[in-house]
Amino acid sequence: MTATHEPLGISEARSQLGTLVARAVHGHQPTTIRRSNAERAVLISEADYEELLRARRELEAGHVTEAIAAHARGEREMITYDSKEALYADLGLPTPQ
């Protein structure tokens, strides 16, 4: 799933929104939309979004499983965390929104 064209400006994307949504849903083609050089978003289908979420959950579960295994091998000590953010940071994961 890779974008096949340059990012669209927000006005241009707005004028083509129906086509872009159809392309995302039926062709699984993402579209990058830019509001400025620093603000970009990607339009993808709901199915592709759900797949990305599933992959993220699997990755996170793998990190947690490995941390538990490392503790069992004596390679990692048990740590108590004051917050969810601290736990995610220690595991090298982004904090869920």
How does this structure look, described?
This protein has 97 residues and is mainly alpha-helical. The chain is 54% helix and 10% strand. Strand 2 (31-34) and strand 3 form a beta hairpin.
Number of strands: 3
Helical residues, percent: 40-55%
Oligomer status:
single chain
Number of helices: 4
Tell me what portion of residues adopts beta-strand conformation.
5-15%
Overall mean pLDDT score? 89
Using the CA coordinates, give the radius of gyration: 19 Å
What is the global morphology? elongated
What about the largest sheet?
Answer: 3 strands, mixed
Spell the H/E element sequence: EHHEEHH
Secondary-structure-derived class:
mainly alpha
Distance between the termini: 24 Å
Spatial arrangement of strands, main beta sheet: 1-2-3
List segments where confidence is low: pLDDT < 50 over at least 5 consecutive residues: none
Overall number of domains: 2
Draw up the topology in text.
Blueprint: E1 8-9, H1 10-15, H2 17-27, E2 31-34, E3 40-43, H3 46-72, H4 84-91
Parallel strand pairs: 1-2
Antiparallel strand pairs: 2-3
Pfam families: PhdYeFM_antitox
Organism: Nonomuraea glycinis
Function: Antitoxin component of a type II toxin-antitoxin (TA) system.
